[in-house]
Amino acid sequence: MGNQTLITEFVFLGFSNHPNLQILFFLVFLVIYTITLLGNMLILTLVRNDPTLHTPMYFFLSNLSFLDICYISTTVPVMLVNFFQHRKTISYSGCMAQLFFLITCAGTECVLLAVMAYDRYVAICKPLSYSSIMNTRLCVQLAGFAWLCGLVNSLVHTLLTSAIVMYKSNQLSHFFCDVPLLLKLSCSDTFVNEAVLHLASALIGLSPCLFTVVSYGYIISAILKIRSAMGRFKAFSTCTSHLIVVIIFYATSNFNYNRPSSGYSLDIDTLVSSLYCIVTPMLNPVIYSLRNKEVK
């Protein structure tokens, strides 16, 4: 025990095996980060200033936009700085902070997308009662519930991970801190951590996903009962943007966390995680801007 040293920093290996492309990587991710910030801030400004957008759908969309700004800001700024460093590092405290905000945003987005699916279900399946059901108080409560789930889940994971003090190495085959990666480096027993991780995946990841699938099952069933083709198209067009966002989010997250741990190079791992953590927040405002007449 006396020969073991306390880890004070972690070294990111992601993007480190292409030293000649660091400037190109910096420019690409700087553009993506700028587009994400501008797109989501534009939606926040529009929803705040345009009275016609003061509806439950756009209230949740503004929460999603703010969430995406926080989400991408947990990883990209550190990564941009590291492109100019020979050793791409992050301090131990910085890693724990990044872990906390990353898990908070990911968990909140899972629940928030399910909340948005419920909003679309009420709008299409119970249109006459929509205003009374989706009142301001319920919208605030649902959004608050999503953020609370993300915060509690993140706090538990961060505390459990920070309790692991012994590591085999300080090298992370990634460009950000994540729980599974840190658990692999641990020399201590991680049974509790892994059990909580699986439980959280079921409660925060799988449950909202199933809820969203069931909601869209009822939505599609209700749409098919509409007699006119124009009516069906109009009803379905109100939820296509959300459906696209849900598919992209869960497709990238599932491929990122549920693919086999072996058989993929560092470049593939980095690319997949970039799609999940960086590209998805950029696409959300683009999808809503292009699909919704109100936003246009």
TrEMBL record:
Name under which the protein is recorded: Olfactory receptor
Membrane topology: Multi-pass membrane protein
CDD domains reported for this sequence: 7tmA_OR5V1-like
PANTHER family in UniProt: OLFACTORY RECEPTOR
Domain G-protein coupled receptors family 1 profile span(s) in chain numbering: 39-288
Source lineage: Eukaryota, Metazoa, Chordata, Craniata, Vertebrata
Alphabetic keyword roster: Cell membrane, G-protein coupled receptor, Membrane, Olfaction, Receptor, Sensory transduction, Transducer, Transmembrane, Transmembrane helix
Localisation: Cell membrane
Transmembrane segment boundaries: 23-47, 59-84, 96-118, 138-160, 195-221, 233-251, 271-290
InterPro entries assigned: GPCR_Rhodpsn, GPCR_Rhodpsn_7TM, Olfact_rcpt, Olfactory_GPCR
Pfam families xref list: 7tm_4
Main location: membrane
UniProt keyword Transmembrane present: yes
Family per similarity comment: Belongs to the G-protein coupled receptor 1 family.
GO cellular component: plasma membrane
Any one GO molecular-function label of the UniProt entry: olfactory receptor activity
